[in-house]
């Protein structure tokens, strides 16, 4: 399997090791690996995604028959916004076309533009940096904390300049970035915080929902996400002024009162609205969200208690303040030296042969060639001096992230939705591969 993947394809999560959990003995771990001719640990597929029933059919049919498919004349988007704000404890929710739209709208509403800098992690989906570039701002990458897979908040203040216009932490995989440290620096330096919460539905920091602690919190409801409408997004905020600016931007710069055929505009904007169909699907999907989240938590905690006992497997650590992990990604680091030098690519292939699909996660986003090409484009050179662009390259070395990208392994969130015996099979496959790692490395 290709080790460089998008978060649209791989979705699971990792908590801290569960205390006091009884770990089942790993049966059959000594069997010959499937890559070497043995029978695979697992033949059945993991639970499929998305989960649907008549609830979704009725919701879509209701919108279809109403003839009101657009939020300007329907009520489904309004209902979803109210429900999601209530669920998360936010004062305001604005639905958008997708998570990328939510991030773009948030930064635009905060006034980010040419000449500005936005701080973000290098271990994230490309949309996090694309929205910065779309506003002709300069992305500034802060290295990863390898133990947690999150941005290293201890290094953020050192990356701030007099042009820093926003800090954009990503709650990767559903676990929380270190918000205590991030918010303290942001308050001290008077810099807004946009939480990229696209992977963290129902995640919490000190029992407050992620996405409600920064100036805005941005969510994705794309097909892979734990709350899914195919495409879709949302912005949470507790600031009435910000939500109105966001509404205008996502509605071609037309405010809530500017409806009908009043063609007057307040500022720049785009059409980034959610449809009534998406909102109806989300309301249906939300009926299962809490139950599914609890199942992921139970399975992930149990799985971690087993994998943490295997030399060379290190589940992602959660910060103390993370009181709930959304488990969009189950992540761990793989040390090939504890597996007889078996390369990660071969480890992933061996897992797949055992019926356990896995991914190597992201590549270093800060090293993607399109970034250099963008910064050397005529438009960027008209905004930024050659000296500043050269200095940008020197500021964006992320050695810890480079190591993380070579060690990471992901499981998908749907893999956590089945019975506990599924977790036993995952652990069995890893044990089996480790026992026969030398033979696999030679094969």
On the 0 to 100 scale, the average pLDDT is 93
Question: How helix-rich are the residues, as a percent range?
Answer: 25-40%
CATH superfamily of the largest domain: Type I PLP-dependent aspartate aminotransferase-like (Major domain)
CATH topology of the largest domain: Aspartate Aminotransferase, domain 2
Q: Strand-and-helix sequence, N→C? A: HHEHEHEEEEHEEEEEHHEEHHHHHEHH
Molecular structure report:
This protein is α/β, with parallel strands linked by helices. It folds into two domains: 34-49 and 289-361 and 403-442, Aspartate Aminotransferase, domain 1, CATH 3.90.1150.10; 54-284 and 369-394, 3-Layer(aba) Sandwich (Aspartate Aminotransferase, domain 2). The protein is built from 14 helices and 14 strands. The protein has helices at residues 54-66, 76-88, 99-109, 127-134, 179-189, 240-250, 276-307, 344-353, 369-375, 378-383, 386-395, 399-407, 420-435, 437-442; strands at 92-96, 117-120, 138-141, 144-145, 150-151, 164-167, 194-196, 204-205, 208-209, 216-220, 233-237, 313-315, 329-334, 408-412. It has a four-stranded mixed β-sheet. A hairpin with a 4-residue loop joins strand 4 (144-145) and strand 5 (150-151). The longest helix has 32 residues, at 276-307. The chain is globular and about 70 Å long.
